[in-house]
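Sample intake sheet
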Amino acid sequence: MASRVSNTSSSLFTARFLTRKLSPNVITYYTFFIFAFSIFVFFFYVRNITVDEDQQNSLFAQQTRSHRVPELHEYNEQLWDSPFSHGLRPCVKPTAKYKGAQGFDRYLTVRSNGGLNQMRTGISDMVAVAHIMNATLVIPQLDKRSFWQDSSVFSDIFDELHFIESLQGDIRVVKELPKSLEAVPRARKHFTSWSGVGYYEEMTRLWNDYQVIHVAKSDSRLANNDLPLDIQRLRCRAMYHALRFSRPIENLGKRLVDRLRSRSGRYIALHLRYEKDMLSFTGCTYGLTDAESEELRILRESTNYWKVKKINSTEQRVGGFCPLTPKEVGIFLQAFGFPRSTPIYIAAGDIYGGNTHLSELSSRFPNLVFKESLATPEELNAFTNHASQTAALDYIISVESDVFVPSYSGNMARAVEGHRRFLGHRKTITPDRKGLVGIFDMLETGELEEGAALSRMVQRMHKNRQGAPRKRQGSLPGVKGRARFRTEESFYENPYPECICGSRSKLEKT
């Protein structure tokens, strides 16, 4: 009986449900609900597919960027960027045991020799020598007999008061020898080149007989290596802090840098050492006419203080001892990747042969900039016939450049490279002149054409010649005796590690 009642109730419930489900309103409601739910599922599914595809595309793009050839603007960034400096920084402070020289009754007078940068490095050496010998340094006399015949005195080129004051903790510096000592006998010395501390300590015996020692030449009087840390840092303080240029030179130099940047932004400073004196001195006549070669030979023969007279030009070039020609510089920079529009400041005197040879560079890089195009005639008038002062302007513009390229490893090239290393290893591209000779000769004979293959060769050759941190190089293997000192890398070309510091782990990697 209970079972029959249950079955009857179930039948009635089913009948009621079916009756309500089949009503028009219910059908409409459920139809709308199913349709809306379907739309929701469809868009949710499509969204997931889109997100997955975007993620996959992003990952693919990242993978592709890591393997593709850099675009032009990215490649330009690589061209201009400085090598990673590994967190290195200038460090020139003396150690705790350092003591300044007194030397109030002993005087060192100096006649500096050479051009601007030869004199600067020589004066910095003499500061260190005065400290070692416990002497007072008299403001050095500058060379007026060099090729340029510059009549400038120390205060014309350098900030004399700053030089004296900045070295107070190191040595005593005076403008002139005391009147009472002007007529006394002096010990006149040609100190031996590349000498160490022991040599100058031995020279202090001269104080037993003299109050004044006159140094006839200042260039390369100190060794590059194996000197006490405090002496090396004193050389850096003298070179990079004390020997500040005079205010007129500093002010104009900074104005010219500002004008160059406002006009062009980034720029290369090219020390184009294709000048008459350098070509004559090195005997490099490749690419010159017979008349030009003869003119250079006559100049060399008639210049008494140039000792070597007969030079084989071909051997000089093959050995990498010649400045790059303007044409070779153009090929080199183009192969390196710099675009035709690159602004190039020419840090040099008169280019030998004028536009005849310079056009071989300007045809590839027409945006050449000179002092005369940056400064007004009135601004340059004060520097006329003073080659060392105009060279100081070139020095400032070169140190501040985005990229520095020397066509020859002369005194200015070495000094600028060292200063740029000191200031944070700013990019300096040093052409491998010896290695490039073979490439230039293949271009000349048609064995090689300008293009991608040439660019790869040049860039590979100079991968490690862009101013990245490295320790100073010692003498060449196989060279013995004092001659080995001549083959060492100049202290002022690379004052690392004595004047550039970092953590021990980073120093060991460089």
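Comment: Residues 24-67 form the longest helix (44 residues). The chain is about 50% helix and 5% strand.
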